[in-house]
Amino acid sequence: MDTIFTRGPSLNNRLTLALVLSVLLIFVDHKLEGFKSTRVYLNSLMSPIQYLANLPGLILSESAQRLTSKEQLLAENQTMSNQLLLMSEKLQQFDVVVKENEQLRSLLQAPRRQESRKMVAELMAVDKNPYSQQVVINKGAIDGVYLSQPVIDDSGIVGQVMEVGSTNSRVLLVADVTHAIPVRSLRNDIRFIATGSGSLNELYVEHVPHSVDIQEGDLLISSGLGSIFPEGYPVARVTQVVRDESRPFARVIVTPTASLDRLRHLLLLWHEDDDDGGTSDEIDSDIEPEDNVVEELEDA
Amino acid sequence: MRKRNVIIWGSIIIALVLQIVPLPIQADVYRPDWVLVVLAYWSMALPNRVNVGVAFITGVAMDILVGTTLGIHSLGLSVSIYILAANYQRLRNYSVWQQAIIIGLLSSLYHLLTFWVQHLLTDIYFQVDYLWPVAASMVLWPWVFWLLRKTRRQFSIM
């Protein structure tokens, strides 16, 4: 019923109010980052809708699981056990190598690497916003997920946690335009920074001089600098190097090793220094500057 | 009163769910603007009940769901719905196909607005792919119009 008493402010006033509020929200959220703590509650408030949206996919995969035939299961079992055999063969050698590495590190008086805590998370939803590459996972503050926690899958680094809700959280993928990750080449330890391009299967390595030794097929692994991502996980493989002398830097395009377009199960990593109060971190920071100097000398 | 609110907000929540339902990557580009289309229907049918305020609240909810900076979608939706609510008397008299064209224009305005704001905040670049939802929304409009009008008449919501 439209009576004169129920009308409230005019449409123009409403629009002005909405515009002012929107701009205020954008300013506070983007420039001042004023919603960092409230975002947890806001995300929790909205998580029922997310769970609802996840339902059709869940039902589909569940029913697909129930409908798989016995032959398919047997075949899958066969390939899995073959894989397990191969893996455990590798693991036997790995144990020896880890021991050896520990001994060598203790000889060098370098800090030992420690096993870090891990947790498997499942993908809940892929973001539909075309301007950013994010996914939502089904673990949140209740499970101990924290801001900028590294996330990997079975073949490489996927991204980092950018927002935490109470039961789910949002992961910024390495391919997002606002994301950059410090890496080094596995072949010759040269350090780079790989930034996202906005498309899922491309990253750019920026500020690479023409003289630097980087080739197609080189594997880039995380360098551990920046202390967000742990060291030594594969990030990307070089697919294209364009050395156009008329440009100041070489154009290097790399492909992420993690299959970002078909993520399903993800692994959350906890920082190593969570258990022992950050002592290893201090030792790291003592040693790193010297390392850097040596590397830079070698580069030059 | 209660029934009306339940129906309106129920349809908006369903639209929000459809907006974020995971789709295969090939189909994802063509996802229509469910939220905009549903809000457009209500603001054209009941301009005194659903207008800029509801659009603003829905926009904030969408920002949280989609993970953009708060305020981006609320700005885009408020402006688009304002244009509709200000001209509802004229738009109601158009045929559904003419309305679909108007929805297409509004949807492209909405996409360009959200793109511009995000372009100011982060350095993203425009791809023509971003405008596929406009075509999808135009195709969607007659069906949503028909469905929601049926629901509205069924429950005699004014």
Automatic annotation (TrEMBL), chain A:
Q: Where are the stretches annotated Disordered?
A: 275-300
User: Which is one Pfam family of this protein?
Assistant: MreC
Where's the Rod shape-determining protein MreC beta-barrel core domain? Answer: 124-270
PANTHER family xrefs: CELL SHAPE-DETERMINING PROTEIN MREC
Query: Which biological processes are named by the entry's GO terms?
Result: regulation of cell shape
Quote the cellular component terms of the Gene Ontology held in the record: plasma membrane
Describe the function of this protein: Involved in formation and maintenance of cell shape.
For this UniProt record, the keywords arranged alphabetically read as follows: Cell shape
What is the protein's given name?
A: Cell shape-determining protein MreC
Q: Which family is this sequence assigned to? A: Belongs to the MreC family.
Q: Which organism is it from?
A: Alteromonas genovensis
UniProtKB/TrEMBL annotation, chain B:
- Give the way it sits in the membrane: Multi-pass membrane protein
The record's Gene Ontology cellular component field reads: plasma membrane
Q: What is its main location?
A: membrane
One Pfam family, short name: MreD
Q: Where in the cell is it found?
A: Cell inner membrane; Cell membrane
GO BP annotation list: regulation of cell shape
Q: Which domain of life is it from?
A: Bacteria
The UniProt transmembrane annotation reads 51-84, 96-118, 130-148
Q: Does the keyword Chaperone apply?
A: no
Q: Give UniProt keywords alphabetically.
A: Cell inner membrane, Cell membrane, Cell shape, Membrane, Transmembrane, Transmembrane helix
PANTHER family from the UniProt entry: ROD SHAPE-DETERMINING PROTEIN MRED
Family per UniProt?
A: Belongs to the MreD family.
* Function in brief: Involved in formation of the rod shape of the cell. May also contribute to regulation of formation of penicillin-binding proteins.
Please identify the protein, giving its name as recorded.
Answer: Rod shape-determining protein MreD
Could you tell me which species this protein originates from?
Answer: Alteromonas genovensis
The protein's gene is named: mreD
